[in-house]
Write a structure and sequence with these properties.
single chain; alpha/beta; Nucleotidyltransferase, domain 5; five-stranded mixed β-sheet; two-stranded antiparallel sheet; 7 strands; globular
Length: 279
Amino acid sequence: MKIDLNKIAAFDIEIVNEYDTDMQLQEQLPLGVSCIGVASTSNTPNVKTVFHEYYPGCHHNAKPGEVGGAMEPADIKRFIDHLLSLHWSDYTIVSWNGMGFDFEVLAYESDTYEVLSQIARDHWDIMFQVLCIKGFPVGLTSCSKAFSVGEKAEGISGADVPKLWAAGITGKDIRTMEAMGTQPAEIKQLLKEGVEARQKVIRYVRGDALLTLDVAKAILMSGELRWITQKGKRNSISPFKPLSAMESNRLPYPNTSWMTNPIKRSRFTEWLTEAIDRP
């Protein structure tokens, strides 16, 4: 997998409904997509990174955070068009667990399995590659700390996002509240709180996309992947050559006999319209 440092695009999505990581993703769909962040490298002088954000109503130019609820298929397809444009322009698409989460959620919500499955096969899922090499995944924050390129936003985690996104009210609730006699000042305050909470989520997804991009660049420049374990120990895989999801899936299976419940690769690939699992 040949990668141009000036042509990398990382993305991340956030969801509307709460997600139980102990359950199969397929059993919990639909989850709804609240927002998507894309961070890409730029060839423009003095511009290192270009950001794009997608959220409910973005296809008709609503402002970030003004509209709540889930993104409509038209909102998501606007993002997919952008992703396709990058893909066709020889950008390397990068994700952190895109195979096991982001792509499947997007495909389900927009009914674009065929298009997204092809991009998914060709893209670089750093976490999935680590899983295929080591038999276990590593977290984005553990890698970003090891490379000293930053950390996730403080005071918020992925589990907090659905609650934040649902905070406050949206324009659709106003008529009901007015009919119930709610005072205009209270409605105005609730609207303000809802917009602020959703804007916080949009900043969070933007930060995750940027962090994924920065880790990808650090890997390419150093030739290795580094992470810090939960016990504070520094580990690395060196050399670490970027592989597409299909290439990662073809790697020999690591020894996982020491694990109680090893993670199966099929958990990340079974959603594809044409399975890429090894026989």
